Amino acid sequence: MFSVFFAEILIKIAIRNLFSAKLKSLILGSFVFAGTILVVVGNSLLDSIDDSMSRSIVDSFSGHIQVYSDSAKDELSLFGGMIMGREDIGKIDDFAGIRNELLKIDNVLSVIPMGIDTALVQKANTIDVELAELRDAVRTNNKPKIQAKSRHIRRIVGLLEGELKNLDNVARTKDRQEDEEHIRRAASAVFWSDFSQDPLAALEFLENKIAPLSLESQDIFLRYIGTNIEAFKATFPLFEVVKGNAVPNGRRGFMFNDFIYETQIKHKVAVRIDTIKKARDEENRMLATDEELQQLVRQNVAQFKEVAFQLDDEETAMVRQHLKDKLNLGTDEQEFSIILQQFLEMNDDNFSIRERFFYEYITPHLALYAIPIGGTLTITGLTRAGYVRNVNVPVYGTFQFKSLEKSALSGGQNLMDMMTFRDLYGFGTADRVEENAEIKKEFGVVEVARENADEALFGGEDAAIVSDSATTGFDEFKNVDLQGAQRYTQALLERIYTSDEINTGVALNAAIMLKDPTRLDETVAVINRVSQEKNLGIQAVTWRAASGLVGQFITLVRAVLYVAIFIIFVVALVIINNSMVMATLERVREIGTMRAIGAQRGFVLWMLLVETAAISLFFGGVGAMAGSGLVLTLGQVGIPAGADILVFLFSGPRLYPFLAPIHLVIAFFVLLGVSVASTFYPALIAMRVTPLQAMQEEE
Amino acid sequence: MNAIVTLNEVVKEYRLGSVVVPAVRGVTLAIDTGEFLSIAGPSGSGKTTLLNLIGCVDTATRGTVTVDGQNTATLSERALTDLRLHKLGFIFQSFNLIGVLNVFQNVEFPLLLLGNVSKVERTRRVEKIIEQVGLSEHIRHRPNELSGGQRQRVAIARALVTNPRIVLADEPTANLDSVTGDKIIQLMKHMNDNQDTTFIFSTHDPKVTRYADRVIRLKDGQIDDENGVPAKPLAVSA
Fold this sequence. Notes:
- The structure holds two protein chains of two kinds.
- Chain A is of the alpha+beta class.
- Among the domains of chain A are: 4-56 and 550-695, no CATH class; 63-114 and 513-548, no CATH class; 127-213, no CATH class; 268-366, no CATH class.
- Chain A is built from 30 helices and twelve strands.
- The longest helix of chain A is centred in the N-terminal third of the chain and has 41 residues, at 22-62.
- The model of chain A is unreliable at 460-488 (pLDDT under 50).
- By secondary structure, chain B is of the alpha/beta class.
- Chain B has one domain (3-94, 147-223): Rossmann fold (3-Layer(aba) Sandwich).
- Chain B is 33% helix and 27% strand.
- Chain B is built from seven helices and ten strands.
- Chain B has helices spanning 47-54, 77-87, 103-114, 119-132, 148-160, 178-194, 206-209; strands at residues 3-16, 19-32, 36-40, 62-67, 70-71, 88-91, 166-170, 198-203, 214-219, 222-223.
- The longest helix of chain B has 17 residues, at 178-194.
- Mean pLDDT of chain B is 87; it is low at 228-238.
- The chains are: A alpha+beta, B alpha/beta.
- At the A-B interface, helix 1, helix 26 and helix 30 of A face helix 2 and helix 3 of B.
């Protein structure tokens, strides 16, 4: 029944009707227009972000696929998961073996061992933590703990007392004298011998009078990836050294992420000055008007001690002289602390000069970085068995992921060699295996499997057996570090481990790079199947699944976008429906006349359908073109990443979105659906119109 | 005789709430091919209802209506629509042109519905009939640019363009002044003379009925008298 003739007249009538009600058509059209732009632009942006973000993640450290133990209690989450504290992702006992099996799989290019963990770095004010624990011990009346904690706090107070002596000839204010008295009191033997008589009062004194005097900042939690640094360097294209060098091949060593190094390890006053400089230079913000920048200046003035405490008499005199000569500060005989505070009181007029002065005349006397490159970092880690372990590791340099340097998210990971990681985590390394062998030899230890231990110990013939369960990684003896600092002698740090030694042993997870990334899901399936068949005990997940919330981010945003699009089109649908009902009621006579002349009901239905479809497709088409144009223009110009998180998502300072034709197809079908749905009810009304209604007289 | 329409004891009742209102109360009638027939009578006498029954836009409550040999009571809605399209033409009191279409398109509309007439043929037929009703100069005008008489001419052209067997006109002159109305009836009569088309029109205007070959007078839904003689113009007072 539907013919070319029909089509012709339907389109003719539809277009005439649309033109005869221009305003209505425009209003309807603008909804469809906006909705289509949203569909096209939104989806294109999300796809582009997804693409660039995947580059950020895959090429920095996740690889295409991550594998980890299939008996893991938690899911692998490279950026830190939802669980507070650390996830238990199990471990891969024999990384070398797993690596060999994985490399046999056709699409696997390389396999990099990893262990991601968080540890404390001691640069920090431990007094608050210790006091809290002491209070806890007092509350539970835990005598040994009270003793231990008291000793620790007493030692910190002693350090503070020593600090005071260095400052004798500097700040001698009334407050200072009081502080001194407090510290001397807290350091006295009497204070501690009386502690047990009224521990709560003593604690209150320590918390209120002593803790605030400590100038140190909080402990830094460092998230690090233990890995084969040489292989890491070769595998991840975004990796680049910023300061110092990469850890030499096979050596133990640590590399800071430059972002962490510049924001957390650097001297706080310098960081604040850097922040102000960046805000002024790159974001055109002014000290005079920007509350946040003013706050930074106030903090610097208030914490002038951060600078003052690091200067000795001679350096103080030098800086003082320079301040007088170059900046004309402190001409009359003021106290140095006051002059320093005046110096730190920066404004828009003097900032540039003072920033240069700071780096030229003051920072040479400061420890600009709390942990210098070439220095040694003491990392306090928690082994899996729950023991605290300190490890010293040399810092070779800093690195960044190319074009992601400003992103805090990608800047969250530091790098560590695999050996140090295993030590920190409490797993055997080549050194420990050797050492254990020596101990066994010395004591004549016999290997006894765990399940036979009872029999061996009590029912067996041998008199004394020490079970060494090195293979389980839970040997409590290993965690009692009898030899202490000797272990990390210069010799150990200079030892060069072979690639085999690095690969042999435990890893927590491993990154896999693929030859053909488009076969990602397929390869994940292959790895999981191989693991089952050969009983490898590992599971493979895509980089997206492995990056936890970050990986889900796009899915989340896409859901939000779809909800927005859905709402727009529901509104459009209701409006179109309404106006079509109105239009139909206005056109009852016309429709009746058509029916009388001989138009079938189907004709009336098609007439309305074509009319809505014409609006939808025309404005949708214009919207799709405008959207495509916008995306293509943005693809040329790029969208600047305003915030740190965007740098990561955009995989660089600008996002260059691309247009995928699929979104135009989606937009087309969405529009078609909306037009049909919105015509349904008015069409029902129109089809009920009888020819008789044409005969009725008007008015 | 060759009856194109026959009505046999036709009754049409409308239901208004619980009240049954009879509009046509037992009409028996035969209309011959080519007749120029007027149905006359005062308002509410059942003229429009009778036309609707003949025009297949309504069906009888009782009795049979036969149009071109088909009993309309036995036809489906779709078949009735088809019958209207192929066999009938309609002229309305208020012209009922499609406002968004111009003169040409309005007249072309039923040909498009037929679906099997080529563009060339359509153009030829539409232009010819528009010429016959004297509107060639206004062929691209919209209905709102035309006078009442011109609009009714377009309606006549639209009703005739498919070469229907019957043209039904419900009070075609009621919305026109007497001079224009007269011209419209003359045009209809002219078309009737030149073709084999049967014209059935209702009116309460005695001046109009004089052109009719036969006048059916209705009163309270029944035929008052059927003398078959055109009423003399001034013999009946309004």
